[in-house]
Fold each of these.
Amino acid sequence: MSILIKGALLRGEVTDILIEGKYIREVGPSLTVTADSCLDGTGKAVIPGFVNTHTHAAMTLFRGFADDMPLMPWLEEKIWPNEAKLTIEDVYWGSRLACLEMIKTGTTTFLDMYHKHQSTALAVEEMGLRATLCAVAFDHFQPEKAEKAKAYIRKSFDESMGYSKRIRYALGPHAIYTVSGELLQWLDEFANENQLPLHLHLSETATEVENSIRQFGLSPVRYLYKLGILSPRLILAHAIWLDSDEIRMLADHGVKVVHNPLSNMKLASGMEFKYNEMRDAGVVVGLGTDGCASSNNLDMVEAMKFASLLGKSWRKDPEAMPAGEMVRMATANGAQILGLNAGEIKPGTLADLSLINLKSPAFTPNFNLESNLVYAANGSCIDTVICDGKILMQNARVAGEEEILEKAAAVAYDLMKR
Ligand SMILES: CSC[C@H]1O[C@@H](n2cnc3c(O)ncnc32)[C@H](O)[C@@H]1O
Ligand SMILES: [Zn+2]
């Protein structure tokens, strides 16, 4: 199957784009080719699909359920007791709702860490997105729970062989305060043997750092170094409370970092994400929304704006975190973190892209597309989404959206009654 996008704005030029199968084949003005279907790009701009590199998709079910709390009471008193009740059906409908929201706001790929990830895999499969799904691991420092976690990882890894090529398997130890060093080392070895990403929350709050020093005698990054698990496969979510030596250690080991400005602000975990220092040290930084209970949506356009404005504010530097770098953080950097040949519109890359509707106040006048996208727009500017060479949304409509809203709301209300 082939798709020809005619006359869309790309890097300031009116351009045609030919997609063949799952790849972008040609990019240029007035292509003289035929295709199975043609999309009119007039009045639209093409951008790479966003890569949300840290979320918990099915937490859409907890949107607006527990707000205005700090991280640990929020997790321990509100979120974890309700997550313990989740069924595979709940996670499936929560994930379908997440996929719908991501498609509607231009995300084509996400990195997820959540319970019952098999249900998320089914939702992703059906909705047509691309995802890397972590099998979660907790042991709460209890050896019998560590053995259970290992058995779950071995089994779910074998099952993941049946997933489509759009879905990749990864390992998701939750955090250093819920997973023992012994289990972290075992997971790192498993990840190494099987070439898998390892995704972990780290240095999210000042309390986490204080507790790490008290419990392990080391700050979180130094603790991971001592365990021997800093590696290019490691993807850290948050990483707010780092000193300059820790940033150097991450850079030296090729560790990737995901910035989550909305949840960092809403849970008041910390503002001073050291993007400039990480970028200058050579750490690849991606952007995430985190889950809908702490962000409270999956809109990467909004996340770019918050990242930029937060970075400018705490540094008191209006030149910090400019729009162009935010777009790269949300696209090419995310693709690099997940090892995908995507995140840029050029021949040979995966056909994961969106068309923005420029006929709106946010894009009028359109002196600078990236500026308008980051500072003026929100995710509702997205008109068309293509992932893996297939159209997932056209004219801002996704097939079956009413049923998803209805079913997801029903399981969310039912969960709270259980
Ligand atoms: C291992 S499944 C994911 C686990 O993480 C919880 N979670 C959601 N947001 C955060 C956050 O900001 N920091 C730490 N943990 C978080 C989620 O509720 C699941 O239990
Ligand atoms: Zn998270």
Amino acid sequence: MAGTPSPVLALTTGEPAGIGPELAVMLATRAVPVARVVAVGDPALLAERAALIGRDIDLVELAAGDALPAPRPGVLPVWPVTLRAPSRPGVLEPANAAYVLETLDVAIRACREGHAAGMVTAPLHKGVILDAGHAGFSGHTEYLRDACGVDEVVMLLATDSALHAGQPGWRGGSALRVALATTHLPLREVSDAITGPRLTRILRILDADLRRWFGIEAPRIAVCGLNPHAGEGGHLGREELDVIIPALEALRAEGLALDGPLPADTLFTPRHLEGVDAVLAMYHDQGLPVLKYAGFGRAANITLGLPLVRTSVDHGTALDLAGRGSADLGSLVVAVALAADMARRGAEVAPI
Ligand SMILES: NC(=O)C1=CN([C@@H]2O[C@H](COP(=O)(O)OP(=O)(O)OC[C@H]3O[C@@H](n4cnc5c(N)ncnc54)[C@H](O)[C@@H]3O)[C@@H](O)[C@H]2O)C=CC1
Ligand SMILES: NCC(=O)COP(=O)(O)O
């Protein structure tokens, strides 16, 4: 809308040994007209990574609530959080796990207090956070769920051209939205985690948030089976018959438009995706390889079911690339654009 300032987004800079800090620097050297981005991280770390990758950057340290400088390429406002130990690109340091979590807490607080309209997260390293003793940590998604005090959230990844629903353009093909019924679990635990109540909560959130954040008036969701050939009538597993089908039938009776459970191998083909707004995959590596094949570097991760806006990149810490300045910025650009769009749509939603 003309005259409305672009939304402020808190960008957590993620694992300090990964590519997050340099992606924040690279983003700041471009014009980002859709949002005013404030990095959350250690200013000395950001300055050091900027120098390492040969970028000139003017870091402006601020407190949450301070007025932001006029957006200008090369200027990066920062809400400072101090590293607990020196960080070298590519070398994980468990002492910095608390730093990473503090950046999340700062961003969450900024959203709660109205200093940010949403948060965008650069990747963190789950393993080093667990190694540091934060038992049970399994990712931003669950951390945000607990920090916001909600029972359930849904991880949704979407490729670029699927990001603005209501776009009449999407008719399957390479644009895709994939939500997950389970997230970061060992494969052997997946079946037990897929329960009727959980599927019901997840599909209700997915349906509601496709309407709320993407403007889709009557979302159609295709649901994968868990087993090969969606269980082959019970011969290749009973989860479809015992759990998934009853949950879908009850939700259809509530008015949700659900296809499935369908065999996952053919669901992800253009004919089956025709007219589908999102796919619900039963587990991480059932859905995300397809999404990443379709659009790695042009997709974003969105946490649905939260009382705040959170998007993220479609990739991890890429320790092998850290400090080189060669990481692809594409997904962060998509994640920022999407968070800005969601923040505008959510402007009328009451603050938490
Ligand atoms: N949003 C988040 O915080 C996420 C965090 N992770 C975490 O990241 C860590 C490493 O995970 P991996 O499975 O190794 O995935 P990864 O995405 O870090 O790396 C996989 C491959 O993709 C490449 N890659 C990743 N990002 C890239 C970029 N921007 N440009 C060019 N190439 C890129 C890497 O160089 C590597 O070859 C794990 O601890 C994982 O849990 C993974 C995904 C998302
Ligand atoms: N594979 C997606 C992923 O790991 C993202 O996790 P999260 O940190 O956003 O929960």
